[in-house]
Design brief:
Length: about 300
């Protein structure tokens, strides 16, 4: 069993703490330490075994970094230099060069590093890729990812960096880790539309928004003979539409993406300790690509809200 330190216990850190607590009950984790300089955050971390202000002196195998995004790179490098394995929330860095430095630190110190692109762990993805390679919807023609949230934009936040990076990574993953030939973007930091152009004329459209009327988290893959559709909030099924008829297909697993991601990093750390081969998801190349394409999309659109 591993000891885990959770660095940052805000909105997303609280989700990590809930999952860690459940894994502790299953004897996959032994001890949870929440590290947050804010006393209010520490008081709310009632599921932790211990709360402290600083990571200094904390004994843990794994550090999960769920702090504000501008702190991720430095904190990840410092944690790995200190001997911890790391799961860092996206973004891995403010730019590709900074993200590359984090990954280089992991290699230098022989540490396991995971990047929080958790939609790769959605139970639907394994099933979707199987249906694609077996030709269930014929030739793939287009992909669509919609992520519109009722949450207001955080101060200084950009919807492409916060929400779009998951879409960019997931759609490239579904396409076999292929790099798109072009990236286009319209909109602004509150509401944006990103288009990725892949080979053979396949286009992926990403629709993003803060402050929407309803929560929408859907993915649709359109082929010349059918459609695959799934809701990211539903973890146990997808829909296959052929000739106007819809069939619901169950997924093999119903783990939430976050739980599956944490389970995976635990397995990688255990393999590392045993001297066995291990691979983190995403691997370093796709992790850097996500940062690079997000940068390109942001540069392609205005950074000021339309009036």
């Amino acid at each position: 069993m591993l000891d885990v330190a959770l660095l940052g216990c805000g909105r997303w850190g609280t989700n990590h703490l809930r999952v860690l607590s459940e894994l502790r009950d299953l004897k996959l984790i032994r001890y949870i330490t929440v590290v947050d300089p804010l006393s209010d955050a520490r008081k709310l971390a009632i599921l932790a075994d211990e709360t402290v202000e600083s990571l200094d002196g904390v004994e843990a195998d794994l550090v999960i970094i769920a702090t504000p995004s501008h702190m991720h790179a430095n904190q990840a490098r410092n944690a790995m230099t200190a001997g911890y394995h790391v799961l860092v929330e996206k973004p891995l860095g403010c730019c590709e060069a900074e993200a590359a430095q984090v990954l280089a630190t992991a290699i230098e110190h022989g540490r396991v590093i995971g990047v929080g692109l958790l939609l790769r762990f959605h139970p639907a993805i394994k099933l979707v890729k199987k249906l694609l390679v077996t030709g269930k919807i014929g030739r793939l023609e287009s992909l669509q990812f919609i992520r519109r949230t009722i949450r207001k934009a955080p101060e200084g936040g950009n919807v492409v960096e916060a929400l779009g990076v998951h879409a960019i990574d997931l759609l490239c993953h579904i396409m076999g880790e292929v790099e798109p030939s072009a990236v286009h973007a319209t909109g602004d930091e509150i509401e944006a539309r990103v288009a990725l152009e892949f080979s053979h004329g396949i286009e992926a459209i990403i629709d993003l928004a803060w402050g929407a009327e309803n929560e929408i988290r859907t993915v649709e893959l359109i082929g010349n003979s059918g459609i695959i559709r799934f809701d990211l909030d539903i973890h146990d099924q997808i829909s296959l539409i052929i000739g106007g008829n819809e069939v619901v297909i169950p997924c093999e697993s119903s783990y939430s993406p976050l739980e599956a991601e944490v389970r995976h990093i635990i397995e990688a750390i255990e393999a590392n300790k045993a001297g066995l081969d291990w691979t983190t998801v995403p691997e370093h190349g796709p992790a850097l690509r996500g940062v690079r394409l997000t940068e390109r999309a942001i540069r392609a659109m205005p950074l000021v809200r339309r009036h």
